[in-house]
Amino acid sequence: MTGRGATADTYRIAEGRLGDEPTVTVSAPDGAARAVLALRGATLLSWQVAREAPGQFTEPTEPVEPTELTDGYRDEAELRSQDGVRAGLLAPFSNRVADGRYHYGGRDHDLLPARVEDRTIYHGFAREAPFQLVGATTTSDSARLLLRSTSIRPDRYPGYPFALDLDVEYTIGRRELGIEIRATNVGETTAPYASGWHPYFTLSRPRPIDDLVLQIPAHTLIRTDASLIPLRGKEALLPLDRRPDLDFRTPRRLGDAVIDACFADLAPGPGGRTETVLSDPATGAELRVWQHGGYLHVFTGDTLARDRRASIALEPVEAPTDAFNRPEHTNALSLEPGRQREFRFGVTYRPSTH
Asked: For the whole model, what pTM was predicted?
């Protein structure tokens, strides 16, 4: 399979499998960039980019060996288990819904109607939904993939009686990967909806993340209880001046910090694009996780089943945890019948200049 108009000088698109799970692989013509996606959840499994310094992507005489920048699912069993939600696309909600219950549209909804002891539910349904590749274009500079899911319907997921079509558009270039999630309400009632992304990044493998440097342009921390549910109302908003241990406005080393927290009031740069920067002082390489609006959730991977603290989750999200239960977010979440909403984010790699 190749993109429309693909030639030997353009990006290549090929179908494959991870066990029994269908995948799509995108490769730059010179091998300097490669991305692998699973159709289950439209999940990014791998993103590799060459480490050459700027200006060295010209007519290579030898095959380029790219480096892995994400810590995604490695096999079919991991993808199906969803442990850690590695690079999961989060919709129609991100992070947790308190007790699996919420009130919306004048009704009470229960996302876990069966009798279960653990009432924890998080990160929505899209990450396990079936997607189809419905469009692909390639040029000499990038590839664009459009994946679609029509699985969110009133009778499909308990406690979510709404109908959404999801389009996920990936743009893969030599040093940048961009994602846009678009949700269209194809039902007859207004739906609560928010999206996000849960990628894990690595610059230091096989070393742990402790020596990496993080910069987050956020002014506010979302305070939570022991179950990681935000406190009520304005009690949830804590200026980072009062939490210097979690204040990364000035770049600093992660060290042994254990983080599972949401950051708000992100300061945008030109064009409204906010950038969170992860860098490796040992090499000078850096990753810039960018987003248009929303919040940033950070997780240092301390409870992962595999390779704890080998990577860090830097998660662009439209809304904070338990937004379905927060009246101040009702208007922002509401997606009316026939309306569409999008959320754009991605990551840029800047190689070492040493």
From this structure: 0.93
